[in-house]
Amino acid sequence: MMAAQQNGLAIIAGRGDLPKLLAEECARRNEPYLVIGFGNAALKWAVDHPFETAQFEKAGALFDTIRNAGCTRVVFAGSMSRPSLNPLKYDWKFTKLAPRLLKSLGAGDDETLRTIASVFNEEGFEIIGADSILENLVAKRGIPSKRQPSEIDRTDANRAREIVTQLGQVDVGQGCVVANGICLALETIQGTDAMLDFVAQTAAPYRHNADAGVLFKAPKPHQDRRIDFPAIGTDTIHAAHRAGLNGVVVPDGGALIIDLQETVKIADELNLFLWIQGGDE
Amino acid sequence: MMAAQQNGLAIIAGRGDLPKLLAEECARRNEPYLVIGFGNAALKWAVDHPFETAQFEKAGALFDTIRNAGCTRVVFAGSMSRPSLNPLKYDWKFTKLAPRLLKSLGAGDDETLRTIASVFNEEGFEIIGADSILENLVAKRGIPSKRQPSEIDRTDANRAREIVTQLGQVDVGQGCVVANGICLALETIQGTDAMLDFVAQTAAPYRHNADAGVLFKAPKPHQDRRIDFPAIGTDTIHAAHRAGLNGVVVPDGGALIIDLQETVKIADELNLFLWIQGGDE
């Protein structure tokens, strides 16, 4: 039996458009790849691509599947809920890994992802960042929307950046909403949309100046960008609009923008700004 | 005209039971005092006490009212929403103070309170902490509930403490919820109850082990404890229960417990623990 081609890419696919974009890019480049979905995650788009499902508890089977498909590289893309693990389903490999993985679950998000990345490394796989494959999606400095941030928006964005940077030191969240200097929400495990829903429910006394508020999103300072790079897109703009915000800010080079053109179009339609902020701004 | 008695206490009354307890304590000690309510805040209990309403925009009138009642000391008690200020109503005093106050509004919660405290100081009033009057309400180390924290609860409490301490550096929040090491919510301007409601809405994937979760509440590290000391009580226990948590943790000496006996009783009924945590635990 011939060895399978040995430079394939396994796409560990979570929610959102990012895994689909990666799969499409691999197809376009005519490079070998395999999309992997977990449990009952809805991945309708995957029918157009080489696709396998996997279970967290069957780590041995997962590694075999990836190897058998000729994949030596792995990319994690899109958010994934923490699984409800059933110990009765553990295979031998997962049983061995479980103590380490479960311990990391208690130490924060980033630590969990770092542990998972180490496990893949030890199995001989190289971890690739989505941003290195989809370079053209990495946000580049500028304000491509028609609306431009006001002085208050700029002050709010800088306060939000300060808060997110601080919070990142304890491995929590990638995002925050600030309006008129007041922090209205901080991102926790439920993600950006849940945070923006919370803001949308925040009543008038805390938001007496209605025309204020920015969403800031950035990688955590010590984050392994290969495995959890922030991504925004049209959904983010819609959610920010529902939350009554003026705009969305990400740092230069610090986020993927899924379909920049469409994202700017929606921002313009809803009169929000999109600001890819340089470190010196 | 004789000078009014010059050691009275003005109780700037926000929400919750704390201002009422202060008024009752002053009445019990037979010391002069005056309860001050703002705008349309519901202070039904105040009919039993010397009471005046005030408006934020009429700062000059407010200071006169306090002075005329013979109050030289001021205590801020209970949370208050940020007011919707109407510049047409500003009196001369507020017009002078407005630039400074509005600037501090944009620099965070604590800064706003510090500025307000300075203004009262400059007017010749002494700011008193609620904890110095209601010393018996300051939480003292121990676990007075029947339920005791598990090892996981203890790990969660320490992670929560770490997060709140970090967040305090940027003057945000006094509370946080951690379950199985995962941060489920961080307190922002909307307060503890809104945070716990958010947690109550957090769906299963993020909380696969249902029997986990603590609310941690503490003063910010650089906070002026005289003007925003955390307080908990039966409401906090009820809200923590609705959020599916195991217990509530406050630091030794770091919070007022409004009616400890009743709070412990409710905690026991709902099978939550109440832990007043020493710094070395």
Care to describe what's here?
- The structure is a homodimer of 281-residue chains.
- With 281 residues, the first copy, chain A, is α/β, with parallel strands linked by helices.
- Chain A folds into 2 domains: 8-133, Rossmann fold (3-Layer(aba) Sandwich); 138-277, Cytidine Deaminase, domain 2 (3-Layer(aba) Sandwich), CATH 3.40.140.
- Chain A contains 9 helices and 12 strands.
- In chain A, strands 3-2-1-4-5 form a 5-stranded parallel β-sheet, sandwiched between helices.
- In chain A, helix 7 (192-200) runs parallel beside helix 8 and helix 8 (234-242) packs parallel to helix 9.
- The radius of gyration of chain A is 20 Å and the shape is globular.
- The N and C termini of chain A lie far apart (58 Å).
- The A-B interface holds A 81-85, 105-109, 152, 155, 159, 162-163, 166-167, 169-170, 172-173, 180-186, 188-190, 194, 198, 202, 204-206, 208 and B 81-85, 105-109, 152, 155, 159, 162-163, 166-167, 169-170, 172-173, 180-186, 188-190, 194, 198, 202, 204-206, 208.
- Chains A, B: It holds the Pfam family LpxI_N.
- Chains A, B: Residues 9-137 form the LpxI N-terminal domain.
- Chains A, B: This is UDP-2,3-diacylglucosamine pyrophosphatase.
- Chains A, B: Residues 141-275 form the LpxI C-terminal domain.
Secondary-structure blueprint of this entry?
Two copies of one chain form a homodimer.
Chain A: E1 8-13, H1 18-29, E2 33-38, E3 51-54, H2 59-68, E4 71-77, H3 92-105, H4 109-122, E5 126-128, H5 130-133, H6 151-168, E6 175-179, E7 182-186, H7 192-200, E8 214-217, E9 231-232, H8 234-242, E10 247-251, E11 256-257, H9 260-270, E12 273-277
Parallel strand pairs in A: 1-2, 1-4, 2-3, 4-5, 8-10, 9-11, 10-12
Antiparallel strand pairs in A: 6-7, 6-8
Helix pairs in contact in A: 3-4, 7-8, 8-9
